[in-house]
Amino acid sequence: MAYELPPLAYPFNALEPHIDARTMEIHHDKHHAGYVAKANAALAGTAWADRPVEEVIANLADVPEQSRTAVRNNAGGHANHSLFWSVMGPGKGGAPMGDLAGAIDSAFGSLDAFREQFAAAAAGRFGSGWAWLVVRDGSLAICSTANQDNPLMGEAIAGCSGRPILGLDVWEHAYYLTYQNRRPDYIAAWWNVIDWDQVARNYAG
After folding, report:
1. Given a cut of 90, is residue 1 above it in pLDDT?
2. Which domains, from first to last, does the chain contain?
3. How far apart are CA 157 and CA 135, in angstroms?
4. I need a surface site. Which of 23, 59, 133, 151 has the fewest CB within 10 A?
């Protein structure tokens, strides 16, 4: 079955003032929708057309070579954005609790240390890409990817591996209307909209 654009669980303006409504509308309805359409076109007629997007991007080497780059870019974009929308929400922010909080403390020393390292990965990604919190070998790790690569693609392809449970889009289209070239300001604001309950569910698997 062809991929579909997942609806947002909240209105476009729900994340204001941290992420503006117009950015959310363009980002979801134009950018993400474009990735969905192009992923469907690239996979049409292949054995991968009806597979979950996470399975497809985790097995890129098995995707027909003539469509592999388009699948990498667009199925990756679909997977990345689907996670991105789900780990944000109105009235969120704060701090993680329970097992996730313990895992963050164990891996990074403290929530503040995690935030500092994650923000550095996001701000330091040259050009377009993502910063990720992943589960790798039973513990948490931070890494970043270029373009629409995803940690499920593996170290050899994405330069970053693991099961992503939190991702931050640092493509300019994610923040430019409000923040222009001030990516660090966007990253700082984003902590106010993270849905840590959803991230904890992602962590639990």
Report:
1. no
2. 20-86 (1.10.287.990), 98-204 (3.55.40.20)
3. 18
4. 59
**What is the per-residue pLDDT across 2-58, written as a single tens digit (0 to 9) for each?**
999 999 999 999 999 999 999 999 999 999 999 999 999 999 999 999 899 999 999
Query: Would you state the structure tokens that stand for residue 56, as one six-digit string?
Result: 């497809």
SS3 of residue 15 by DSSP: helix
What does the alpha-carbon distance between residue 110 and residue 112 come to, in Å, rounded to a whole number? 5
Sheet strands side by side (includes 139-146) = 139-146, 129-136, 163-169
Three-state DSSP class for 159?
Answer: coil
> What pTM does this model have?
0.96
Structure tokens, 5: 């654009």
Count of beta carbons in the 10 Å neighbourhood of residue 141: 17
Q: Which two three-digit tokens encode residue 141?
A: 């790790």
Q: Give the contacts of 201 (CB within 8 A, at least 6 positions apart).
A: none
Name the region of 179 (left: φ>0; alpha: ψ -120 to 50; beta: rest). Answer: alpha
What percentage of the chain reaches a pLDDT higher than 90?
A: 99
For residue 23, how far is the Cα from the chain centroid? 16
CB 117 within 8 A of CB 94: no
